[in-house]
Structures are given as structure tokens and as C-alpha cells.
Amino acid sequence: MQKKVMAVAVAAALAAPAVALAQGSSVQIYGGLSVSFEFAEAKSADTTSTQNTNSALPGYNSSSVRGANLLTTQAGATAGVGAVGGGNLASTGVNEPSRTRTQAAGSNFGIRGREDLGNGLYVGFQAEASIAMGGVTAVSGGGNGLFAGWRNSGVWFGGRWGEVGLGLWDLPFNLNQTTGAAHAPYANASTSMSAGLLGGGLGATAAGTSSGQDFAQFCPGGSFSNNTASTCFTNALSFHRRQSNQIWYQSPTWAGFRGRVSYGATSGATGNATNDGANFPSTVKAQLWGAGVSYTLGGLYAGVGWEKHDNYITTAARLTGAAAGGFALGGQNAAGVTSTLALIPVGSATPGLAGNGISGDDSTGWNVNLRYTFGFGLSIGGYYEWVKWDMNYSQSVTGNTTQLKRDAWRLDAAYQLGAHTFGIQYGQGNQIKGSVVGGNFNGDGTGTNMWIFGYAYSLSKRSSLFAYYTLVDNDLNSRSSGIVFGGIGPNAGADPQYLGAGIRHLF
Questions:
Q1: What is the dihedral of CA 130, 452, 507, 134, to 10 degrees?
Q2: Cα–chain-centroid distance for residue 379?
Q3: Triad 348, 352, 355: Cα angle to 5°
Q4: Fewer CB near the terminus (10 Å): N or C of the chain?
Q5: pLDDT of amino acid 233
Q6: How many domains does the chain have?
């Protein structure tokens, strides 16, 4: 009997390290699938205004410019896509007809975990991918509707002093912008104004995954010689960023306060964006800084975010190629008012703009988010952001854009009553303001208003049915799609609408 007891004791002693290791490590598989069937359209396109034909400014090509909020390519580039406000330049007064589709953007699958190292130290990790199930989210060749791209993924080392991490992650500005869990039961890409109106809010193509400083990240899907200004510039402007090539520090929570600081490395920008030659003699190194502080106490959340980009627009301009000429912010004639053309040339090789390439830029954004959840199920919140883009040139030429700026805000409320969730959101992107050399900047009619109405019924803690209606009200010169992914890029003044119902399951 004693021998049996001794054998069990020895076996237990030998197994103890393995048990301790297992208890010190954890791995979790998680994710969510959200798919809706929706009707989408964009009606009420402007039919009253005419194209600005002020051809006196350098590099101007009247056939490529229409709409006081449009940035497009000049000097022979193909018209058809705008960057500020987005949409289709090719025609006036053309509506986008109603279509049926599925919306599955935002579905994800991930693995995350943590290993305790002792003495309060640990290593954490997360690898998360988006899932495309058809619909409006493009699926890569051979993808067969599976993974479409990477989301927040990284590894970090932590302790009582906080965490230091590396990888691809939402920046503090973006994290503060999207906080609002009360609307989660009916949330999908068509019920978020995050990148369609907020987060810079100048592009119809939402840039929720804009990241890094490499060629493919600034101007995806193109080549050095044929990138469109709209693609490159939309990504460079975006403050709705999930940044790769990132290092961050996150503090522990002290009396309800928590802070986060991020840095986006220059990465491949020195090789891909410098173009060290006769045409582009200056060196360009794009980099990013971000910081945020939040405070939580019971149902209260208060947060402030800050972000600074160095040479993002300049990098995009260099990557567009000299053949494109530049980015042009055109004017629209309406009610006898002629707007001033604003131009950002891409480099000193541009015809008619010798020595006038953009030499550097600096962009800054601030945001504030305040919300409170009451014990009886009501959640209310308010959000405000202010973003400014400044450009410098090797020499001053009439028509060059020196500054763009815009502010936007959102109010929202959600009420949970048993298994039912009712939500309403209202957002407004104010008119674009700016400055140009030798003229007046006219941003009239570039504002956007937006309403979102949502409802969800919880079948269980992890499954729910939901419905929503999203209405975007664009001003005369605005082309905002309003939503994060798969938005309709309307013609000037058209108002996108999204009406849908779907199923959501978390695991």
C-alpha cells in the first residue's frame, strides 16, 4: 500500500510543472458572423450646377474636374473617380438605382491568448482575420468566400507597468472614435458612419484598414506609373486607421484612467516614396504618432484621441507618378458663384509646374468621445473630431492647396429593454475649409448629414436578429457614401440609403 502511495506521489510531483504551465497559459478561439440582406440606392443627384472652367491655373484640366469637394488627377489622367467626397465624376444628375445585396463586412475569426511568465510579467498575442461571405466585400482570387484580410493582430509584453506591443492595430484616435458598445447588437458595416463621415470624412471609399507607409498600403492595387490620385490620396488623408508597422505602449488602469501611445514606422517609405532622382530630389519619410487617454467610472466613458501624420500626402503624391500631374480640388459653378481650383502637384517633373512639387506635409487630428450608460438600459453619447491637413511646396504657385480642414460630430442613443435593443444615431460632417495660394477656397455645399435607426432582438447571449435603416443626406457638392465598407459612391448631391435585416452570431 505504501508503495502505491509513493508511486502516486512521485507521478504527481513529475506532472506538477506541466500542470503549472498549462494553468499559466491560455488560448481562446473567438469571432463573429454578421450577415444582412439589404436594399441600397443613391437618389437626388444634383442636376442644376455646371462644371468650373477656370483654366487659368497651373496644371488645370477642366474636363477632369467637377464638384467643389473633388480631388482627382490632372494633366491627362482619366476622369471618373473623386477622392474628397468620392463618387463618379463622369456624369451629372445621375442616380444610383436600387439594388439588392448582402452585407457581411465586419465578420471575423481570431485566436488570442496569454502566457504568464511569473513576477507579474506576461506575453499576450492576437491574430484576427476578417471573413468575407460574398456580398459587397471583395474576395481575392481563390479565396472562395473565406478570409479577406487581417484585422487587429500583434504580440505584446506586459507587466504591472503596462504593455509594449508590435503589429497591426487600431490607433488611439480610431479606438476612441468607435467606442459605443450599446449599438453592438445591430452593428454592421451599413450602420457605422465611422469612415464614411468621421475619421477624416473626405473620401467616399472608407479607409478603415489604411495602414503603414509602403507603396501597396498607400496606393493599393496599382503600380508606380498608373496609380490614381483618388486611391492614393484617400488612403493618405484617412484618420480611420488600423496601422501596421506599429509599436505601441498601453498603460495599466490607474483610478479609472488609461493611456495608449503608438508610433507608425517609416517602413518602406524611404525606398518607395523618395524617388531620389532629378525629378524628385528631396527625401520623403512618412511616419505617424498617436496617443489617447480614457476614463471610465461605472457607466461613464470619456476619451480623448490625438494623431499626427508626417509626409503622408507627399508620399502618396510621389507614388502617383509624374504622369498623373497632381491632385486637384475643383470648383463647381452654382447660383452664379465660381469656386477656386486648388491643386496639389505630384512633383517637379509635372508639365508647367517645374520645381513646384509638394515638398512635405503635416496632418493633425483630435477627437473627444463622451458617453454614459444608465442602470435601466439607456445609453447616450456624443462625439466630436477636428482634422487638419497642411501642405508645403518647393515654391509658391497660384492654385496650390496649402491647407484643408474639417470637423464632424455624432450624437447617439440606445435603449435595451429585455431582449430588445432600439438605437438611433445622427452625424454631421461640416463643410470643408481650406486655403490656396493666390485665391479663395470655396467649400460651399460639401457638408453631409446622416441618420441611422437600428433594432435588434436577442435570441440568446450570442445570437440575435437585427434590422436597420441608414440615410445619408449630402449637400450640393458632397459625394459621401456614409458607411464603412461597400458604400455607394454617389454623384454630387445624391443621398445613399441602406435598408436591411440580418442575423448575428458570436462565438
A1: -40
A2: 25
A3: 30
A4: N
A5: 74
A6: 1
In a domain, 455, yes or no: yes
Give the Cα separation of 384 and 182 in Å (integer). Answer: 18
Per DSSP, the three-state class of 340 is coil
Q: How, if at all, do strands 153-159 and 162-170 pair?
A: antiparallel
Q: Residue 491 corresponds to which amino acid?
A: N
The span from the CA of 405 to the CA of 442, in Å, is 12
Res 502: pLDDT:
95
Residue 116 within a domain: no
> How would you label 174-207 residue by residue, b for 16+ Cβ within 10 Å and e otherwise?
bbbbbebebbebbbbbbbbbbbbbbbbbbbbbbb
- Report yes or no on 197 lying in a domain: yes
Give the CA count within 13 Å in the CB-facing half-sphere of 152: 16
Supply the CATH number for residue 404's domain: 2.40.160.10
d(CA 496, CA 473): 7
Structural domain range at position 332: 36-89+160-506
How far is residue 60's CA from residue 341's CA, in Å, rounded to a whole number?
8
- 457: exposed, middle or buried (C-beta count within 10 Å: 0-12, 13-18, 19+)? middle
- Per-residue pLDDT, 125: 97
Residue 479: all three cell numbers together = 459625394
Residue 28 lies in a domain: no
Q: Rounded to the nearest 5 degrees, what angle is found at the Cα of 492, between the Cα atoms of 487 and 496?
A: 35
Q: Mean pLDDT per segment of 10 residues, for the chain of length 507 residues?
A: 43 42 76 93 69 30 28 28 32 73 88 96 95 65 55 95 95 89 83 83 52 55 51 78 90 96 74 46 77 96 96 75 48 38 50 58 95 94 94 74 89 94 94 79 81 96 95 84 80 88 95
